[in-house]
């Protein structure tokens, strides 16, 4: 079949942006901006694939970062992925997000359970952050049940593996597109 008349309609449908895509309008000139989300991974997540695969899976950090970038481009987000084994780096990046990002996906690894500094940084910047853990921390040792991140997070996703990062990015994209959910009309 050659170039049929039905094709342009189908193409137009496919090119319609994802309905979850975030929109940000530059107040200076009304142009559309692509929102930036930082995906921050903490200590030992560089060892994904090697480290306790029965708990964390066989995928590597590079696989996880690729998944995040792919989710970001589907959702209309620029995803900036970073990993560090050092608490201060995570604090610096959270502070950087204050002026450089509209959202944060944070897996602080073991620092989740110990870091008042990360708690304070998240509280200080006020950028919506979704806490993610690959494993279900609540089904593991009791020292993993407490999180310094959860009280200052917009949401928490645990135990869903790499999909948790995709869900977190979806949630942030929706939140960026509609920053104040309480202003939404009740339709049901
Ligand atoms: C983790 C859970 C933490 O308790 C642990 O220290 C990690 C990984 C997770 O993704 O399941 O390093 O954050």
TrEMBL record:
Q: Which GO terms describe its molecular function?
A: 3-dehydroquinate dehydratase activity
Reaction(s) catalysed (UniProt annotation): 3-dehydroquinate = 3-dehydroshikimate + H2O
Enzyme nomenclature, EC number = 4.2.1.10
The protein's assembly and partners:
Homododecamer.
Keywords tagged on the record: Amino-acid biosynthesis, Aromatic amino acid biosynthesis, Lyase
Please give the family membership noted in the entry: Belongs to the type-II 3-dehydroquinase family.
Q: Which residues form the active site?
A: 56, 133
Signal peptide residue numbers = none
Task: Recall the taxonomic lineage recorded for the source organism.
Answer: Bacteria, Pseudomonadati, Pseudomonadota, Alphaproteobacteria, Hyphomicrobiales
Q: In which pathway does it act?
A: Metabolic intermediate biosynthesis; chorismate biosynthesis; chorismate from D-erythrose 4-phosphate and phosphoenolpyruvate: step 3/7
Which HAMAP family does this chain map to?
AroQ
- Origin species: Methylopila jiangsuensis
Residues the UniProt record annotates as site (Transition state stabilizer)? 51
Which EC class does it fall in? lyase
| One GO-annotated biological process of the protein | aromatic amino acid family biosynthetic process
Tell me the PANTHER family matching this sequence: CATABOLIC 3-DEHYDROQUINASE
Question: What is the name of this protein?
Answer: 3-dehydroquinate dehydratase
Gene3D superfamilies, from UniProt? Dehydroquinase, class II
């Amino acid at each position: 079949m050659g170039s049929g008349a039905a094709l342009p309609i189908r193409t137009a449908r496919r090119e319609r942006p994802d309905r979850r895509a975030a929109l940000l309008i530059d107040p200076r000139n009304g142009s559309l901006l692509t929102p930036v989300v930082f995906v921050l991974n903490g200590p030992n997540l560089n060892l994904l694939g090697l480290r306790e695969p029965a708990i964390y899976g066989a995928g590597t950090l590079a696989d996880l970062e690729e998944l995040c970038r792919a989710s970001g481009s589907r959702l209309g987000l620029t995803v900036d992925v970073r990993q560090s084994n050092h608490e201060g780096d995570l604090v610096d990046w959270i502070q950087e997000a204050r002026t450089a990002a509209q959202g944060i996906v944070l897996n602080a690894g073991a620092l989740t359970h110990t870091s008042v500094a990360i708690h304070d940084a998240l509280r200080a910047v006020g950028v919506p952050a979704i806490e993610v853990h690959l494993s279900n921390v609540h089904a593991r040792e009791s020292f993993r049940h407490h999180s310094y991140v959860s009280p200052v997070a917009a949401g928490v996703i645990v135990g869903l593996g790499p999909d948790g990062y995709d869900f977190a990015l979806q949630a942030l994209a929706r939140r960026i597109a509609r920053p104040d959910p309480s202003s939404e009309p009740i339709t049901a």
